[in-house]
Amino acid sequence: MAKKSKTVWAWVQSNDPVKPTEPEKNRITALFAPFVQALNASLPPLAEPQEFNQVVKIDSKWRGSYFYLICHYKSAPRPTNIQDGFEVGYARLTAKGRDKYDLAYFRHTGKWFTFLPDLSAEECLEQIKTQPIFTM
């Protein structure tokens, strides 16, 4: 008769996001505000006539445990357009604990990909400034 293998129970750290407090949200928003303003100032003016979709504004917002940097695009004028523009995610910070964030970028597949876990907010900002994946 074969022996049963022993089952071992172990604690595994949760990968669920943590809801940040209002002061923490305000701190992150204030930390990223100069960067967002600098990005908006560096955007080129709309080309005339506009042939392609073009970024017109970059914004930040909180949604639950996630802090997003979002690009607002203006669509090239075509008779089949339903809207004048659309939004696409640029970067996302996922709150994981006290000053711990996962940094993700929005892939062409329509999904977020976390590639740098457990960073501070300042480290996330520095990575967004220096990583080639975030160049515009």
Strand order of the largest sheet: 1-2-3-4-5
The profile of the biggest β sheet is: 5 strands, antiparallel
Low-confidence stretches: none
Shape: elongated
Count of alpha/pi helices: 2
Please give the radius of gyration in angstroms.
20 Å
- As a percent range, the share of strand residues is 25-35%
- C-alpha termini separation: 65 Å
SSE succession: HEEEEEH
Total E-strand runs: 5
Average pLDDT confidence is 89
Determine the fraction of residues in helical runs and give it as a percent range: 10-25%
List the domain count as a whole number.
1
- Structural class estimated from helices and strands: alpha+beta
What does this entry look like structurally?
Helices cover 23% and strands 35% of the residues. It has a five-stranded antiparallel beta sheet with strand order 1-2-3-4-5. By secondary structure, the protein is α+β, with helices and mostly antiparallel strands. It starts with 21 loop residues before the first helix and ends in a 6-residue tail after the last helix. Strand 3 (85-97) and strand 4 (100-106) form a beta hairpin.
Summarize the structure.
This protein is an alpha+beta fold and about 140 residues long.
Task: Outline the fold blueprint.
Elements: H1 22-42, E1 54-63, E2 66-74, E3 85-97, E4 100-106, E5 112-119, H2 121-130
Antiparallel strand pairs: 1-2, 2-3, 3-4, 4-5
Properties at a glance:
136 residues; five-stranded antiparallel sheet; 5 strands; alpha+beta
